[in-house]
Amino acid sequence: MAETGIDAYRTASVLGYCLLPMVGLGSIGIGVGIDHPLGYLLSIVSIIWCTYSASAIFVVVLRMDSQRLLVAYPVGLLYGCFALLSIFNVKK
Is the dihedral of CA 4, 10, 12, 16 positive or negative? Predict the structure, then answer.
């Protein structure tokens, strides 16, 4: 999609850096549990925040001004999977 390429290390770095709100969500999930409507709202906000920040970094680095939604869609799916893992953790 971009004229210039990006290596796997930079991609992993951007995705990992923008995963920090999910870490907070996971820590809340471990402490009090987030399998209720407020937890769902927090996870949606966290997904949007992570997706927005990661897609902004990718758009700037790859100079893809008009293709932000094309970048944000798969990134949002990735962060959505992490949020599902945080919400539906198995308690022993």
Answer: negative
Determine, yes or no, domain membership for 3. no
Kindly state whether residue 77 falls inside one of the protein's structural domains: yes
Alpha carbons 82 and 24: distance in angstroms, whole number:
12
pLDDT tens per residue, range 33-78: 788 888 899 999 999 999 999 999 999 988 888 889 999 999 999 9
In 3D space, the residue among 87, 86, 60, 31 whose CA is nearest the CA of residue 52 turns out to be 60
In a domain, 2, yes or no: no
Q: pTM for the complete prediction?
A: 0.86
**Tokens 């471990």, residue?**
30
Domain that holds residue 80: 8-87
Listed residue (81, 46, 53) closest to 68, CA to CA: 53
Residue 53 belongs to some domain of the structure: yes
